[in-house]
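name: query_chain
kind: protein
chains: 1
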Amino acid sequence: MNNTVTRTISGVGFIIIVVASLLLNKFLFAAFALFIMVCMMHEFYHITMGDTYKWPKVIAIVGGCTLFILLFLICAYGISLRFLAIGMVPMAMLMGYALFLKDKKDFGLYSHLYTALVYIAAPLALSNFVVLKGGEFSGLLLLSFFIIIWGSDVGAYVFGITLGQKYGKKLCPAISPKKSWIGFWGGMITAVICAVVLNLVGMLDFPVIHCVILAIIMHVAGVFGDLFESQWKRFYEVKDSGNIIPGHGGMLDRFDSTLLAMPVGVLYLVLFNLI
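structure:
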């Protein structure tokens, strides 16, 4: 019971922070996005690299933050795209640092520095294009994405815990033994319901058929994102990516679905010229 109360309170508090960062102003959004980026990259490096290569980790995290800030300035204030070249400085520092390492017996771990930049930093940096259009800030679309993802997660959990553990087959037992196909389809149903409701209230201002398809592909992408993170944790024998959110684990545990679902959702809307 105590754990349930803790999870509920921390979960509600976390949702309030996310919603506030997306509705109040662009600076709060940027601060929150940078905070979760730093947390997730740190957690990923701790899982995959332990205590090795401390300074390269710092450089990589600075590189991810630099990319986000540059795209924020481009989207919010229209600075020239040529300033993106500044983002190459931390990358060059990473490569230069590698040349002068004295102990290279664990050099294979160095590649994880770049993995987090693609896996974590890039999707978060690209979120600037979702919330900033022509310099104007609006977090409604990104908030809608989160609501669809949260609905997918809640539906998958409810259907999975009530029916999936007793009936049907496991979704991917080698990676995540508790996930079931019933939970998968339940999550898809709730994601679609969320998208339709968002359309009805005007937050997803697209034809309803596109809202339904968007919810389906984001749900599928979110499940893959969840399993992808679980694969890393299982390989390195880690239960949670961190403990920053009481009862819920780390930031990477909370945003693993988002890191794939959000870019896929944006890609769909761009391909059909909806944004």
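note: Strands lie at 132-133, 136-137, 170-172, 176-180.
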